[in-house]
Amino acid sequence: MDTPLRAVALNCTLKPSPGESSTDVITDQLLAELTTHGVTGETIRVVDYDVKPGVEADMGHGDQWPELRERILAADILVFGTPTWVGHMSSVAQRVLERLDAELSETDDQGRPIMFGKVAIVAVVGNEDGAHKIIADTFQGLNDIGYTIPAQGGTYWNHEAMNPKDYKDLDETPSAVAATNKTAAANAVHLARQLTQAQYPGS
């Protein structure tokens, strides 16, 4: 019997709810693909919460990161979604990585960082260039924190240069993006199930 898995999608758009978000569209697509493999999940629009700057698990009065952190820790698969702004990930995405940095000092009873055994995939959308660099930077950060990245674990859509258009305004998902979403989700589930059965060695 397959191990039940849970996913959490972090939408790092700069637009608070209920504003329409292209990042929401692609993370929802990935969650839908994960659902076909029996994974349950939820989306967190990070900008809707007061996430304080810092590199601690709890930055004190008013910080809502601890609430998000618990939901992230409860998930086997992280879907990390960000728009592209001036060629970079959003400031919200950067803050999430900075807050996740605190997990490097948190270990389980065998001395492993607590994110060991969890899988992450990344989605980027934008009407300008930058997706490859953003995915590379995000992969590196998440891997340092302890996440495992599956084969072809990044998906993205960029519109052509100097001709702005948003992913959410497309009439249909481009076939290449749909295929990549499908592969990223399938590989994430495969890897997560392997890791639930054979965790990394303790220190």
From TrEMBL:
Superkingdom, natural source: Bacteria
Annotated NADPH-dependent FMN reductase-like domain residues: 8-151
InterPro entries for the chain: Flavoprotein-like_sf, FMN_Rdtase-like_dom
Entries under SUPFAM superfamilies matching the protein: Flavoproteins
Listed name of the protein: Multimeric flavodoxin WrbA
